[in-house]
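Final paragraph of the annual report: two paired records, presented back to back.
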Amino acid sequence: MITIVAILKARPGTERQLRDELLKVAAPSRAEVGCVDYILHNSPEHPEQYVLYENWKDEDALQAHLASSHYQEYRRSTEAWLASREVYRLNKI
């Protein structure tokens, strides 16, 4: 299994737009065959910060997700709204 933790920070004034796009990509991502978990979090102390916690069955499942049209659209749609993006690929030990 592959775990992805992505920490996204919205530019000031774009928190809602980023949230809407993250919610929009969540449902089709969860429906993918290799998706185990796709969980969106938001910080109550820092409303501009979102954290995605994802688990994928294997490398093929992750690569299929990254190539999917809904993921590609999300990446295009959110470019202007992101102040930063940190992505961590993790293996369970």
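The closing record of the year follows.
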Amino acid sequence: MGEDLSGYHADRIQAAIASDAAAKSALIASWRRSSNLHRLDPADCSPARYLTQLELGQARQRIEPLVRTAQSSLDRLYLAVGGVGCCVLLADCDGVPVERRGSPVDDETFHSWGLWTGSVWNEESQGTNGIGTCLVEQRALTIHRDQHFYTCNTGLSCTTAPIYDHQGDLVAALDVSSCRADLTEAFANLISVAVVDAARRIEAENFRIAFSKARILLAPVADKGSGALIAVDSDDLVVGATRSARLALGITQECLDKPTPAADLLGWAKNGPEVLAEAERGVLQRALARTDGNVSAAAQALGISRATLHRKLNRLDVHRSH
């Protein structure tokens, strides 16, 4: 990159930082953090910092269950974007990629840019960039070419989405990066849809594994694709919720630390004497369904006599459909 262009980019950033635009622009606020908080120089062209193999192994080990869960989603995302010269990175909460997908013909190029496992892409080290800024702002975003803080990174376009664990904590970032000069912002927006979708799939699968013995319900929220899931145990008590569900339904950790009926949380609760009757009716209906409508078999499964079951069916107005 020419010295004039390098100087122009650095001057442009310094001018933006000196203005009052940071209050209105998340991008300029990130530039300001990079300069004022982390004391970085946009003209610095030092190579990307890499962890040692030991450090990388330890970083990967810390989120190994998530890495295993993410494999199929990473493969699918790479199939969608790999053909247009992009690589896929899964970074930990410190901004270090621990898993990667990329074409072997592009390996040398991506490695030279630092788009590799073990490189450090937090804002403290690299200034404004997809992975680091996503982790700070905890939202999906694209840092396109000259939106990067460092001049040496302005050839990159990086689209990143945060990943939250089953307890709603930020644990990773999913990134698709490209160093193609012809990658337009419009195409980067299409990539963003794929990245966010993949991140939500990883979160959902990780949540299901964490609560493998619970029923997983889609919370009744406006955005059905937000990944708002809750886990409910055999007593219909809520035992877990994704971050999206927590935000949408106002679920706090305190709510999950005490027994909370799913019906109460979701606004399905009913009051009055009918509640117990409905619960009993449900038990009878399920027993009959499991025995294909055989009253004798259902009574035996419930541990009651056939006559008792008949009385309950009549009292609760349960009609066999078989």
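The longest helix spans residues 185-210. This concludes the annual technical report; the extension proposal builds directly on these records.
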